[in-house]
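In this section we walk through a basic example: taking a raw amino acid sequence and producing a predicted 3D structure, encoded as discrete structure tokens. The instruction is simple. Fold the sequence below.
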Amino acid sequence: MKEYETQDDNTQNDSSPDEVSPVFFDRGISWVDFNERVLGEGLRKSLPPLERLKYLSIVSSNFDEFFMVRVSTLKRAREHDGPELNSEELLGRINSKVRSILSRQFHALIDEVIPGLAEGGLRFLRPNEWSDTEKIFLEAFFVKEIYPLLTPLRLEDDDPLPTIDNHSLHAGFLISYEKTGEECISILRIPQMPDRIIWLPSDVESGISCWALLEDLVQVFGSYLYPGFKIKESLIFKVNRDANYSIDDQRDEDFIEALEEVLEGRDRSMPVRMVYTPGSKKIRDCLAEKLDLDDDELFQVTGPMNLEIIYEQLRGFDHLREKPWRIYAHPDFPEDLPLWDRISQKDIILHLPYQAFDPVVRFFKEAAADPSVAAIKTTLYRTSGDSPIVSALEQASMAGKHVTAVVEVKARFDEGRNISWANRLEKAGVIVIYGLARLKVHAKLTIVMRREFERIKRYVHISTGNYNDKTAKTYEDIALFTAREDMAYDAGLLFNMITGYSAPQSMTRLVIAPTTLKQRLLELISREINRSSPEAPGKIIAKMNGLADPELIKALYKASRAGVRVSLIIRGICMLVPGVKGLSENIQVISVVDHYLEHSRIYYFANGGAEEIYLASADWMPRNLERRVELMFPVLQDDLRKLMFDNLQAYLQDNTNAWVLSSTGSWRRKEPASGENPFRAQVYLHSRASKANTEEHSAAVQAEFVVRRSPPGKS
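The resulting token sequence is shown next.
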């Protein structure tokens, strides 16, 4: 059965009666398929075990968010199905695919990854593997460190279920009163402190580190909590709840209070899934009934849950990971030269994480310390908890500079952190704008205004990714530094639109959503169609994280029918169906899953030989184009345009970590053809960054040598 469906198109129907009607893959199924590709990396036996665990943990984390956001929406829609959507059938397909992925995920974890860790000297011990000595140690640890933190809760037949926090691990116990044999059920939350990993005393000479899990201790020594009762059965479980509901944007005067109510509500919202370990069927059924979950919403796993926490706490053990990839300094940002001098000379592109995030931090820090800087304006969507950028903005404001920060507090799952930044910044005197009603500010933009030669000169940083120094080490993104007057003018207009009362303005260089971006993309695709011919077919290459906008997909179908060659590099969701005769036979779709998370958006249009390349914060998704403030910006400098085209070509050449999408919805990993050498795009981009760094260093050394051949002041 094909995974796509034909959708009616009452507008912009360019198909003649004998042409194939537009078809689309389902968005939810496509997202599940992305996680199957991530799982594909975790299944690679050639990778070290901790590297495999990283990918398995990403799958677990992604599915939690998927159920909290996407599946919750489908579950709410079940009672309101229209003829165009059968939520029940779709949920069944999603659950079936997820169960298949979970089965393979935990098979790899239990049968391959955990034994691989043990072979490398990192042994995970389950209760049946504890020696008498280890059990004595763990029992003492439980009594001293864990028992005081636990709060058992009764489950009464007619009483509502006690609060079960979203995503937190809980233990359930079926206990019987020793005097009468009467059975009852109790649950408790597994504490977040101490760490979930409990290290056992190790023999230094053996070189083996052994560890147990906190929830195993709770299950084994749970009898301390129920004196006079006997534990008959137990299990560990967690609940995913609906997180896809938003704040009332009309509550202007108490906006933050309203947002905090939303955060509190997530732990009491509609349950959408329960994940549990093998154990008590009675406990499982009791919880399912009280949570109002059907059998297809119950997911049994054969190993530990919340793998991302385990992975984070397994620090060190580098011999069980891939060798760390070196992050190189950008050759255009030497430490002894102010950033302003270099940015004034030319546009500069920073490619993360092949090149270090340091110039972005320097951009803020030097602006804060520079007496010539009068003002800073920036957007903050997601950043780290101890962000050096937030600190720099505080310092700039306290130094008397005019600092404005648009803090998007509606960034899902980062709302609490964003509220904390906003409070800090306001205390330092920063003008904080809490986003816009009904729109998320997802654009990544900063302007630094500096007094130079009796005028204000503006320096601009625009990026495809967040101002987050932590994720900048693992997320692939591209940032542009520029002092171009037209770019800076447009950037100023955008801030005025966000922070003040300004109607959308016409811009020369920047293209923004939700006002003009979608229409501009449609125009660029249409222009490519008009300039395409059989002798010189048009070409579109687009790299993004998700493609789900029906209008843009239909425009790409039209381009394909007109002979335009379309290459799409899409990390996650793709609703476009490639390779359908008469509809999309000139479209290829690949997805690259590798060491770094692909996050940049690059859009190329051949334009009859006058090539254009754009970078963007926006994917081609309805939410990005219609419900967010986003930015698309051109790469105008010739050498940088060539650099970005080289990026795109590298992804298209990848034959080791790229996957190809077929018209049936299946994904096939690309492999080198007969006689073809393996090519891995991320390795190539890493080596390119290394070469650029080495060449710049060599040139600097040579220049230094030449200057010092004569005494200072003499030729």
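Looking at the output, two observations stand out. Confidence is low (pLDDT under 50) at residues 6-18, 247-256, 258-263, 701-715. The CA atoms of residues 303 and 560 lie 46 Å apart. In the next section we compare this with other chains.
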